């Protein structure tokens, strides 16, 4: 296992949600934890919670676009764009819960809701994201198997820094300073990746995904350029997507960045693989709302189908159990989590700043 300097402590089919191991490890450390969680009733669905949450987010979505229509060609529209950027982030978090079958137990209603809220609602392909996120859950922070730490623009480890070329090598020198500015482009990147995925092999329900994404794009851009002047429409587009990208990126950034990573065949058992690579973020109910429950990243990775409101109670059980087994359980405040992630990014970029390819810190 390779560990970052600041860290304290085979992919499945694309259409499947990652689930913890079951009968084969009935006597495993994870199985004993799962029994405690089950006895506490924390694997039950919470339909009323999700009914309220979906209703509130839908009202906010409608209110944002109503304000957009009433304001018309006004310079106040960037404020509406910023508000809708936050709402789009909340919709993305709800789509995440649908994908993990936290809302519905069955696959069909989960996929239907995911495509309606994801593809049609915010222009993000449910099928593409499901493929990517499933592989991440199966092998978090594994440099060859987790798509979230495979170098695209940023490098996440010393090995990746040594092998980087082109844009990742150029940006890697100052990637800690560029991380949050780059998130302003993440909203656009999600849309581009969604369209590119339509042409990838193995994409299921390709036509349906394409129709819903096209409908979203046509209505979204049509509304902007019909109501606003071209200059204001472009400004709205940038502010909206920038806020969406920064919010969503800031929600996911604290979860694993700067935590231990794996390479090759170095894969511990399910319990340790999920706990060691994840970081929780402390906070009250406001933090739960802002991060959509992903502040309980350890519990979410151990029990991905657990309804969001149960994660807070599960935390106490999981933390106590990890202490019994002497497994490092890491949680910190929100700002500290960003600090740890940025320090890690800065550390792995050190050899690129020196211009060398040999002395690379462990990452």
TrEMBL record:
<feature type="domain" description="Fatty acid desaturase">
    <location>
        <begin position="74"/>
        <end position="332"/>
    </location>
</feature>
<feature type="transmembrane region" description="Helical">
    <location>
        <begin position="50"/>
        <end position="72"/>
    </location>
</feature>
<dbReference type="GO" id="GO:0008610">
    <property type="term" value="P:lipid biosynthetic process"/>
</dbReference>
<protein>
    <submittedName>
        <fullName>Acyl-CoA desaturase</fullName>
    </submittedName>
</protein>
<feature type="transmembrane region" description="Helical">
    <location>
        <begin position="78"/>
        <end position="99"/>
    </location>
</feature>
<keyword id="KW-0812">Transmembrane</keyword>
<dbReference type="Pfam" id="PF00487">
    <property type="entry name" value="FA_desaturase"/>
</dbReference>
<keyword id="KW-0472">Membrane</keyword>
<dbReference type="GO" id="GO:0016020">
    <property type="term" value="C:membrane"/>
</dbReference>
<dbReference type="GO" id="GO:0016717">
    <property type="term" value="F:oxidoreductase activity, acting on paired donors, with oxidation of a pair of donors resulting in the reduction of molecular oxygen to two molecules of water"/>
</dbReference>
<dbReference type="InterPro" id="IPR012171">
    <property type="entry name" value="Fatty_acid_desaturase"/>
</dbReference>
<dbReference type="InterPro" id="IPR005804">
    <property type="entry name" value="FA_desaturase_dom"/>
</dbReference>
<feature type="region of interest" description="Disordered">
    <location>
        <begin position="1"/>
        <end position="26"/>
    </location>
</feature>
<feature type="transmembrane region" description="Helical">
    <location>
        <begin position="207"/>
        <end position="228"/>
    </location>
</feature>
<keyword id="KW-1133">Transmembrane helix</keyword>
């Amino acid at each position: 296992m390779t560990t970052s300097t600041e860290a304290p402590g085979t992919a499945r089919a694309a259409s499947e949600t990652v689930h913890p191991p079951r009968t084969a490890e009935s006597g495993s450390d994870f199985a004993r934890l799962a029994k405690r969680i089950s006895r506490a009733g924390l694997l039950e669905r919470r339909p009323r919670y999700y009914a309220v949450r979906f209703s509130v987010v839908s009202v906010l979505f409608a209110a944002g676009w109503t304000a957009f229509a009433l304001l018309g060609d006004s310079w106040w529209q960037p404020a509406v764009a910023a508000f809708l950027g936050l709402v789009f982030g909340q919709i993305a978090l709800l789509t995440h819960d649908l994908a993990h079958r936290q809302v519905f137990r069955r696959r069909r209603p989960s996929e239907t809701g995911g495509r309606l809220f994801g593809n049609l609602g915010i222009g993000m392909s449910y099928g593409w994201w499901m493929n990517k996120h499933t592989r991440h859950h199966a092998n978090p922070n594994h440099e060859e198997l987790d798509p979230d730490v495979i170098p695209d623009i940023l490098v996440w480890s010393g090995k990746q820094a040594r092998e980087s070329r082109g844009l990742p090598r150029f940006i890697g020198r100052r990637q800690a300073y560029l991380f949050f500015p780059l998130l302003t482009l993440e909203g656009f990147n999600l849309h581009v990746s969604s369209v590119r995925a339509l042409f990838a092999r193995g994409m299921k329900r390709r036509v349906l995904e394409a129709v819903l994404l096209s409908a979203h794009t046509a209505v979204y851009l049509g509304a902007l350029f019909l109501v606003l002047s071209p200059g204001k429409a472009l400004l709205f587009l940038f502010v909206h997507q920038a806020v969406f990208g920064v919010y969503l990126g800031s929600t996911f950034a604290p979860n694993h960045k700067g935590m231990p990573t794996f390479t090759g065949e170095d894969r511990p058992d399910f319990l340790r693989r999920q706990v060691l690579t994840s970081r929780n973020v402390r906070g009250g109910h406001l933090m739960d709302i802002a991060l959509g429950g992903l502040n309980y990243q350890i519990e979410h990775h151990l029990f991905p189908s657990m309804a969001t409101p149960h994660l807070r109670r599960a935390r106490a059980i999981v933390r106590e159990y990890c202490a019994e087994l002497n497994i490092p359980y890491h949680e910190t405040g929100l700002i500290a989590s960003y600090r740890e992630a940025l320090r890690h990014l800065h550390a792995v970029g050190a050899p690129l700043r020196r211009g060398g390819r040999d002395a690379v810190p462990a990452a």
